[in-house]
Each structure stands twice: as structure tokens, then as C-alpha cells.
Amino acid sequence: MKAYNAYDNFLAVMDKAATTLGLAENDYVALRYPERELKVSCPVKMDDGSIKVFEGYRVQHSSVRGPCKGGIRYHEEVDDNEVKALAAWMSFKCAVANIPYGGAKGGIKVNPQELSLGELERLTRRFTSMIAPIIGPERDIPAPDVNTNAQIMGWIMDTYSVQKGFASPGVVTGKPLEIGGSKGRAEATGRGVMFATVMLLEKLDIDVKNCKIAVQGMGNVGSIAAKLLYDRGAKIVAVSDVSGGVYDENGLPFDEIYAHVSQRRLLSDYKNDNLKRISNKELLTCDCDVLVPAALQNQITTENAADIKAKYIIEGANGPVSVDADEILEKNGVIVVPDILANSGGVVVSYFEWVQNLQCFYWEEDHVNELLKNNITSSFNEVWELSKEYKTSMRLAAYMVALKRIVAVRNIRGICP
């Protein structure tokens, strides 16, 4: 089987979207190449006195529509190809959401669970120092991603600020409230997934209370999305994390499970003999109406796409469905709400946080959530209508919306020099 290449995945869909729109190659050829790719080595003094060197990356895909924006992930499988793809998806995600950002992404090849808190802080500060020349509130604004959180953003903000000689809260988003974070930011991506799920069901005249939902990945995104859908009356029949999952066709005792994972405890440690233990792979093909893959990319491939029982897939993670799998799902009548629409809530509220930082004026959570809902609703409707007009999948329609916006700006700005 051909090895999965996340960036090739992006290019394949973008090329198809451009062809469908009838764009000339000159209109979008620059989007095939990231504007800037930085690879750094980060030597860190470990607690035992030894020196260990970690590889880090920051890729800026496009700054045509504004400063680059994108998270930083800490994961042992991080590589340059993955970060390139994630940066490109961010460019398109920001364009679909119609916020004035381009796309970027960063990462360090590390298993953060193997580091002490002190080692994690020293690694973060070293990485920040290495990428500091290309980031900033008007250039490139990092945010949390896989295995990073508000505290890590705080260290990044402090390191950058110390180097500049003044406090610069706008250099990152997803920070603690005490140093300029936004209310509602921590739940924003999961809340956006919930909004996208509810909107799809409303378009299809389906009551969320009659739906069985499975969520792969009970991290920040998956757990919040599942909780908010559960609160709306949905039946959560399966959830999983890195340690495996649990399933009950009649509905899980989700309040108990949510309380358990909220304490940063693995599902494998959750004791309930009435539930069926399943693997992450089994969760993807379990009996459900709505599947929310909210873990990592490349989870639904040609190997399991034909076995998917869900009628609707809401992509909480970035790139969880391969291009080849997309074709199988579409042929089988499965509707996929793509990542660049479904999980855009995080970057939308990151934009709100950045705006608040620049204005030094902060908003209440209800206001933030209402603005988020309005943005997701507008983006969803635009993608939905375009998919109907062109008779395409929602993924292709989302890429078409993004391409039209990016190309329009590129043509207005031109190429300098």
C-alpha cells in the first residue's frame, strides 16, 4: 500500500477544487509551496545533567490574507511533511472561516509524557528562542495543538516577551486568562465541532436527540464536543483515547466518563464491567449515526473506509480521512464535514483573543460563544450551498470557498517584486 503523505493529500484536494472552479494554474500555483520552512535543533539540559537534542519545525504556508496562524504540537511522530500539511490546512481553514490570517504550524518531535515539568519548560523556551525571528503578533501567531496547552503558551509568550523587552501577549493565543487569554478559547474547537454537527443534522431534518454518536479521541476537542452534544440530548455510544475505548449501543454513562477523563486519567483506568472494551480501530467502524474522529490524521483509509457504518462524519482532527478513503465514503453516501470547517472553532476564537490583545479590551464568554456560533453558521451555510450548487462533497466545496478567497487577495495584491 502506498505510504500516506499528508501534504500530497492536501495538494490532491486543492488541485481538484481549482479544476472545479476553472482556475488557471497561475492563480494558485504559489499555494503548492510553503512560503517558509524552518527546522531547528533544540539542545536541552535534562534533569540528570545530560544534554538531549530535539528536532523542531515551524512552517509558514501562506501570509497572503494576513499574519500566519497555527498551533504547535509535541508528538514523537512529528516531521516536516506533517507540519507542512498542517500549515496548508490552516491557510484554508482561516480562509473558510473568513478571518484575516494565513496558515502556519509548528511541532517538536518528542513524547512530552517522558519529560518532567522542568524539562518541558526548558524545551519550550529553547524552541521559542529558535523560532523567535519568524514569529510575532504581526507575523506568525502560534497556539496550542496536540499535547500542548495554555501553560506552554504562557512559556512561549514569556520567552518572546523577555527577548523583545516588553510584554507581548498577542504573540500566542490559547494563553491563560491571567496573561491575556480569551474566555471560551479552551472549549472553542470542541464547541465548533458541536455546532457543525448540529447544523448538519438540522439541514437533514434530523433531531440530535435521535442520534448515536461515537467520538475517537477524548482530548480537549473530542471530550468537549461529546459533552456539548450529550448536553443537547445526543446518545454517546462510544468514546476512546490512546489507551482504547468503551462502547454501549444503549448509550454510555457519559457524565461519569467525562469526569474521569477531565482528571487526565486514561479510559483504560475507567472501571465499568457493563461496557464493551474496544480499540480505536473498532470505534471507527462501530454502529453509530455520527462519527467524530478527533484524534490524529490518517485514521480512515482504504483499509477501513468501506466498513464505516456511520452516515455522517464530522472531522474534529486535522486530516483524519485520506483522499482515497474520501472517494469510498462518498460512493457509499457518507457525508463528511471536513476539518477545515468542522474544527475551525479554535482558530476563530484565537482570532478573537488576538483582537482582544491588540485592543487591550476583553470580552465575556457569552459574547465570545455567540460570535463563534455566528461564524461557524455563516461558514457552514456557505460551504453547504456551494456543495449543492456544484454537486460536490462538502470537503471539495470548503476548499473551493477557501481558494476563491485566497486567490482573490493574491490577484489584488499581485506579486512583489
Give the secondary structure arrangement, pairings included.
Layout: H1 6-21, H2 25-28, E1 36-45, E2 51-62, E3 68-75, H3 80-97, E4 102-109, H4 117-131, E5 140-144, H5 150-164, H6 188-203, E6 212-216, H7 220-231, E7 235-241, E8 244-247, H8 254-262, E9 276-278, H9 280-284, E10 290-293, E11 312-314, H10 323-331, E12 335-337, H11 339-342, H12 345-359, H13 365-390, H14 394-413
Parallel strand pairs: 3-4, 3-5, 6-7, 6-10, 10-11, 11-12
Antiparallel strand pairs: 1-2, 2-4, 7-8, 8-9
Structure, explained:
There is one protein chain. The protein is α/β, with parallel strands linked by helices. The chain is 44% helix and 17% strand. The protein contains 14 helices and twelve strands. The strands form two sheets. Strands 9-8-7-6-10-11-12 form a seven-stranded mixed β-sheet, sandwiched between helices. Strands 1-2-4-3-5 form a five-stranded mixed β-sheet. Strand 3 (68-75), helix 3 and strand 4 form a beta-alpha-beta unit. Helix 12 crosses helix 13.
Q: Specify the structural class.
A: alpha/beta
Count of helical regions: 14
Main β-sheet description: 7 strands, mixed
Order of helices and strands: HHEEEHEHEHHEHEEHEHEEHEHHHH
Number of strands: 12
What descriptors fit this protein?
14 helices; alpha/beta; globular; five-stranded mixed beta sheet; 417 residues; 17% strand; seven-stranded mixed beta sheet; single chain
